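tool_call predict_complex ligand=adenosine monophosphate
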Amino acid sequence: MSSAACIFCKIIKGDIPSLKLFESDKVFAFLDIQPLSLGHALVIPKFHGAKLTDIPDEHLTEVLPVAKKIAKAIGAEDFNVLQNNGRIAHQVVDHVHFHMIPKPNEKEGLT
Ligand code: AMP
Ligand code: ZN
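tool_result ok
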């Protein structure tokens, strides 16, 4: 299921460019366009839904393993995985997405 008006569905289809990190039949991952740190990635189910409660379980099972794979692949030792639902919770894009935000060591000079 996808939504013609959804920016992340357009990214999955390739209608909007992205820096793709991973793709399978159910999951897509790409770099955030306004990264909070180097390597800030978004991992999304291909199934369109605004909130976590809109996504069937079978479309979510691979999402955290992919976030884990990306964190390991880029050598992020400390990182946050965040997922916002609804405006009050600071959600801006209405297609479920998990942020994987590396927290580099301050000594490395990256924020
Ligand atoms: P949220 O506040 O959880 O809805 O976060 C939405 C995230 O999507 C933000 O971190 C944006 O920088 C990111 N974003 C919006 N448009 C794009 C895009 N075209 N490509 C990559 N990331 C995007
Ligand atoms: Zn969508």
